[in-house]
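job 3f2a | input accepted
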Amino acid sequence: MNRSIKILLVLIAVFVTLALAVTVLSLTVFVPELTSDKEECVTDSVIAHLPIRANLHFSGFPKGPVLNETVSFVYVLAPSVDLKVNVSEGIVLPEGFVFVENNLPTNRSTLSKDKRYQFNATIKAVKTGKWTIYASPGVYVDAYVFEDRKGVLRIQEVPFATQPAYIAQRIGNVSKEQQDALADTAKDWLSGYDAIEYEKEEFNCSTLSLAWHPGYGCEMFGYSNSTLYDKYYFVIDEDLHTNETMVRNVYRWAYQTPSGYQQKPVCEEITTKGSENSE
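job 3f2a | predicted structure (279 res):
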């Protein structure tokens, strides 16, 4: 083999090694240290879509636990903006399940944009029946628990969760009547939250999911004295049996703060619970 061919083969081997290294790094799930100081975050302009995507990965899926048996899962969060959130409140268990162990942080922390965080948990089935586990935001697990045989797990996640609202609308358009009803639901929630009364409000709603747990995403801009005061993003459920809607998650960008006007406020989740499962 002549010298030029040997050199070419060495260069090819180096290129392949570098390509594999880059691929491995891009697939790595990051679990960096969580930060809690707003000043340390790189903030973003407010965006018109759900600011974080969630996934649940169960061991043994799609089989579920027998009564009094445990099952483990990984809770994955991928924020597209810096986001203040209490991760431990993101998993809402029904009365048919209890936590056995988990590493969900209980303090309010900031998840950094464009990184993936994973948290482990083990839960135990303590009652038979059909139960719904909620993972914030927009992930539903219908769990069927039996006494004498393996159960069944069905998982629904929000598709296009980190895409712009106009793409999410391809799943299903929101009519003016629907948007008005969703806006009323959001405003009722804000009233209970003791938010200020805005001079003007603008709503833009999209369908996030049309599966067995229909969901909607609504962004709201609140203006006071002709100035943008707050921006909210609501994740809202619809009960197919009662046709009632319910706020699941609320994200807020506060432009007007006691310390002054914020051009690029950090997104903060101000609720994760708001369902019967959390009682």
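job 3f2a | Residues 165-278 form one domain.
job 3f2a | closed
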